[in-house]
Design brief:
By secondary structure, the protein is α/β, with parallel strands linked by helices. Helix content is 49%, strand content 15%.
Length: 239
């Protein structure tokens, strides 16, 4: 393999798809993970120079491990892991269902741990690698109705700082990108007056684009002296 390989989870849409496009433009072969929509994943792959789609339900520990094995079997290596896949379930604390909390832990946090664990073994053998975890501004500020989500995202920050210290000796750099409010299917459903009210609270007076987050991921994928850090991509809401 002449090209380095980037595995991006949750890459069939939104931020993940933007990261796939950005890293492909940077010259990486792309391992594009998706959970359900094969047609959409194949469509993204068709846009890129070298990309293969891999299906996995990241709630399953064995599926996470198998995903790494499949990517290694296809490409022989993993140089960049972007842990982007995640989910949101909003509710104030007294009404949070324990099943929902467990699912958030599995998808948003446990999969990040497992994928990072097995990918790091490959990167140690290569004596190089990048692990980039997509967290959230909510993990730093908190937000009413998002206590469970915030718990998973703030945990990613501590996890990333710790593995940055574990893996630095092997030439592996580990960092976070923390998006603010990014244009998505969720923001598209908001009423116009609600959107405008939210924008007044953002110093740059606009929502972010998935490509804004992808630009930070692209930077970290090639940075050689940054580890254990978080790049905030939120228009100035939090720094």
């Amino acid at each position: 393999m002449d090209k380095k390989v980037a595995l991006i989870t949750g890459a069939s849409r939104g931020i993940g798809a933007a990261c796939a496009r950005a890293l492909s433009a940077d010259g990486f072969s792309i391992a594009l993970h998706y959970r359900r929509d094969r047609e959409l994943a194949d469509k993204i792959c068709a846009e890129l120079d070298a990309a293969v789609a891999f299906q996995a339900d990241l709630k399953s520990s064995s599926a996470c491990e198998n995903l790494i094995k499949q990517v290694k079997a296809e490409y022989g290596r993993i140089d960049v892991l972007v842990n982007n896949a995640g989910m949101v379930k909003d509710q104030i604390l007294p009404f949070v269902r324990l099943d929902d909390f467990e699912e958030l832990l599995d998808v948003n946090l446990r999969s990040v741990f497992i994928l990072s664990k097995f990918t790091s073994k490959q990167m140690i053998r290569q004596k190089s690698g990048r692990i980039i975890n997509i967290s959230s501004v909510i993990g730093h500020t908190g937000n009413s109705g998002q206590c469970a989500y915030a718990a998973t995202k703030s945990a990613i920050t501590g996890f990333t700082k710790s593995i940055a210290q574990d893996l630095a000796q092997f030439g592996i750099m580990c960092n976070c990108v923390a998006p603010g409010l990014i244009i998505s299917e969720m923001t598209d459903r908001l009423a116009i007056d609600v959107k405008e009210k939210i924008k007044t609270q953002i110093p740059l007076k606009r929502f972010g684009n998935p490509s804004d987050v992808a630009a930070a991921v692209s930077f970290l994928a090639s940075a050689s002296y940054i580890t254990g850090e978080t790049i905030h991509v939120n228009g100035g809401v939090y720094s």
